[in-house]
């Protein structure tokens, strides 16, 4: 086989993630606090950017669909010294030069479906100056991994991680997250459970069930409502909560007064046993939450407000306090352009102008996307806002994405680190997404939480002589129009800490005898 050389032309399309598109993706998934810090950095790097309100020469650049650089004076006396074609900042010019579009389509980091949503990229390479580009590449390159690894975990984060494993149903997690926010730095739960149940529209029994699970979390004694309950939880963890110890814990005021004769009489023990019991009480930690240190608690600032309208609908609006207000200084741009002569300075000013214009547009598009996704979530979960947590509907990212004509990855990024203030509290947007169970008759799907509630009702109403097995529960649920597998019933039952049918039969027979 002979080897030969030849010239060959090939035409192909490739997905190019331009710095501007990477910046738009980064802005969309940032929280309000991170976004404010990011914009502050851009204000320091880009001399053409300034905070809104500092310059009253004109409206912010980029708010109109085809906005460009405007001359402050109508006679053109302060016009730039070079041809304006080099600084085109219109929507069409930017899309053509940067090889991407300003539409709110954000691809996944990997996956063909996300790539299919992107426009065909142009063959133009990014030629901006690194000084004023302000793209996400430089930020990602300076990521401090050591600071991330050495960061302390707060008590709320520690409890949230355990709740993700111990509580599987979305309603329970929503209640649990609400309770986690009520735990103070000492580890005690402040607030009234009746108020929580009323706020969330959930039964008090459901709130108590979630709290009971949370009181088994590490560190022992956390989520207690009093010192007595905190010590009792720690003693139960050590398997030392016998009747004598229970009586001692319930009469701590006598221990504080050193009334040992009264304690011996109440606990029914001798002096030696009472001394050992007091020593064990002293070894407990009355403030288990302080093991995680005293960290500064950052208050949650909602990105979206949801209010009830007089006609029964819901009003959704963005929190203007979390939206960075930046604009391009037209006066400074005109002043600098008059004194710029060499090509290097012209390229730098052109790069700063183009980057600033993109940032203004990206911030505006981010706000519109958050509002659109939030409005669809409120429409889908209307029952939750009107009646409570028990009326959460099955909802996934694809349902919302299809309804608003966006990609699932865009919805996923919007719902991360964004919070919604409602009449039932402040919730992260991702908490409104719940799994579903198919209907046996082909009708509307059932919420997973509703199915769990139905399983608990069936088990609570069973008789000692007729304990329901998992297969029997499956048959009853299918008779009610719920198509569910036996292993799913077993998984839900175990998640609710309900023993098997054999164990329940033994317990009920022992209670009768």
Instruction: List the domain count as a whole number.
Output: 3
Question: How far apart are the first and last residues' alpha carbons, in Å?
Answer: 93 Å
How does the overall form come out from the CA principal axes? Answer: extended
Write down the overall mean pLDDT: 76
Protein structure class: mainly alpha
Task: Describe the strand arrangement of the main beta sheet, using strand numbers.
Answer: 3-2-5-6
Report the helical percentage. Answer: 40-55%
Can you count the helices? Answer: 24
Tally of strands: 8
Radius of gyration: 31 Å
- Which spans have pLDDT < 50 for at least 5 consecutive residues? 54-89, 96-100, 104-143
- Tell me the strand percentage band: 5-15%
Largest sheet, described in full?
4 strands, mixed
């Amino acid at each position: 086989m002979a080897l030969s050389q030849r010239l060959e032309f090939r035409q192909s399309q490739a997905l190019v993630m331009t710095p501007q598109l990477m910046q738009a993706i980064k802005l969309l998934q940032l929280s309000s606090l991170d976004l404010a810090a990011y914009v502050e950095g851009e204000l320091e790097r880009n001399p053409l950017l300034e905070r809104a309100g500092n310059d009253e020469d004109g409206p912010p650049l980029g708010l109109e669909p085809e906005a460009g650089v405007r001359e402050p004076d109508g006679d053109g006396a302060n016009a730039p010294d070079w041809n304006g074609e080099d600084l085109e900042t219109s929507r069409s010019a930017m899309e053509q030069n940067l090889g991407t579009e300003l539409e709110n389509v954000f691809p996944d980091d990997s996956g063909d479906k996300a790539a299919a949503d992107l426009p065909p990229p142009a063959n133009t390479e990014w030629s901006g100056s690194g000084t004023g580009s302000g793209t996400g590449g430089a930020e990602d390159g300076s990521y401090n991994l050591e600071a991330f690894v050495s960061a302390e975990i707060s008590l709320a984060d520690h409890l949230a991680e355990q709740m993700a494993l111990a509580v599987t149903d979305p309603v329970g997690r929503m209640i649990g997250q609400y309770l986690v926010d009520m735990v103070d730095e000492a580890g005690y739960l402040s607030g009234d459970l009746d108020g929580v149940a009323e706020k969330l529209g959930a039964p008090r029994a459901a709130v108590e069930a979630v709290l009971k699970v949370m009181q088994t979390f590490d560190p022992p004694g956390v989520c207690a409502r009093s010192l007595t309950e905190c010590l009792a939880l720690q003693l139960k963890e050590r398997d030392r909560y016998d009747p004598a110890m229970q009586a001692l814990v319930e009469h701590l005021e006598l221990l504080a007064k050193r009334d040992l004769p009264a304690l011996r009489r109440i606990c029914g023990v001798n002096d030696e046993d009472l001394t050992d019991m007091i020593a064990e009480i002293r070894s407990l930690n009355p403030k288990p939450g302080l093991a995680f240190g005293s960290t500064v608690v950052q208050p949650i600032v909602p990105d979206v407000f949801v209010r009830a309208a007089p006609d029964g609908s819901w009003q959704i609006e963005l929190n203007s306090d979390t939206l960075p207000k930046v604009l391009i200084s037209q006066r400074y741009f005109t002043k600098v352009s008059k004194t710029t002569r060499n090509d290097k300075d012209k390229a730098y000013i052109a790069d700063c102008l183009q980057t600033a214009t993109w940032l203004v547009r990206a911030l505006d598009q981010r706000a519109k996307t958050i509002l659109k996704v939030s409005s669809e979530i409120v429409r889908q979960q209307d029952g939750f806002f009107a009646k409570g947590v028990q009326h959460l509907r099955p909802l996934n990212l694809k349902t919302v994405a299809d309804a608003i004509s966006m990609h699932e990855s865009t919805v996923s990024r919007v719902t991360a680190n964004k919070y919604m203030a409602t009449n039932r509290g402040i919730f992260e947007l991702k908490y409104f997404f719940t799994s579903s169970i198919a209907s046996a008759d082909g009708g509307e799907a059932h919420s997973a939480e509703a199915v769990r509630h139905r399983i608990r009702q069936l088990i609570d109403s069973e008789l000692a002589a007729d304990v329901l097995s998992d297969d029997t529960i499956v048959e009853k649920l299918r008779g009610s129009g719920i198509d569910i597998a036996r292993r799913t019933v077993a998984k839900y039952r175990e998640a609710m800490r309900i023993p098997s049918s054999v164990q329940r039969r033994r317990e009920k027979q022992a209670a009768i005898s």
